[in-house]
Write a structure and sequence with these properties.
46% helix, single chain, 218 residues, five-stranded parallel sheet, 8 strands
């Protein structure tokens, strides 16, 4: 099974990708993980990406595409993969199509996680992170600490990251609508899009996603 996962920030893509990949026994290929791995390993692509990032510039699509193609070439992806964060725009989607055609492969589905915009803002803007350990994450509404502003685990101060502030979240949503949403129509024209309301408990969303995916083998 070869799947592309799309959805706005805060839709739970990373969480669902991990569960779906495990259930489908395919690797979860995340753009963020690709960048971190290539940069930490000092690969030629990693060094090239880092040079752009250090200069405060966006990494060109060509580098991102090359990283994704290199990862899809790995043995564990021979029977399928779940792409999370790639393709991010039309150019990347067309490059992925070209890559798959060259390999005589096809996508099975593009899973579109839909969440109302106000819910996205609420989910992200409500996050509170522990200053002592960023893995300790709370939420002002959905996962409140016992004492306001204090981490239940270690007693550290909880704070809101700049990236999680409402104005920043809304800007990220604008970028998503402008750059990424067009790939949904692109894939709808290929009859690949499976739309899923990503509301409710994590396991409930995963079950709905598994039921909605095509049952054919990759």
């Amino acid at each position: 099974m070869r799947i592309v996962l799309v959805g706005p920030p805060g839709a739970g893509k990373g969480t669902q990708a991990a569960y779906l990949a495990k259930n489908l026994a395919i690797p979860h290929i995340s753009t963020g993980d690709l960048f971190r791995a290539n940069i930490s390993q000092g690969t030629p692509l990693g060094r090239e990406a880092k040079s752009y990032m250090d200069a405060g510039n966006l990494v060109p699509d060509s580098v991102t595409i090359a990283m994704a193609e290199d990862r899809m070439e790995q043995p564990d992806a021979a029977d399928g993969f779940l792409l999370d964060g790639f393709p991010r725009n039309l150019g990347q989607a067309k490059a992925l199509d070209e890559y798959l055609r060259d390999k005589n492969l096809t996508l099975d589905a593009v899973l579109d996680l839909e969440v109302p915009e106000d819910e996205v803002v609420k989910r992200i803007a409500g996050r509170r992170i522990c200053r002592n350990d960023s893995s300790h994450v709370f939420h002002a509404e959905y996962n409140k600490p016992e004492a306001e502003g204090v981490c239940d685990v270690c007693g550290g101060e909880l704070y809101q990251r700049d990236d999680d502030r409402e104005e920043t979240v809304r800007k990220r949503l604008e970028v998503y609508h402008t750059e990424t949403e067009p790939i949904i129509d692109y894939y709808k024209a290929q009859d690949l899009v499976v739309t899923l309301l990503a509301m409710g408990k994590v396991d409930e969303v995963t079950k709905r996603a598994m039921a909605a995916l095509p049952s054919r083998d990759a």
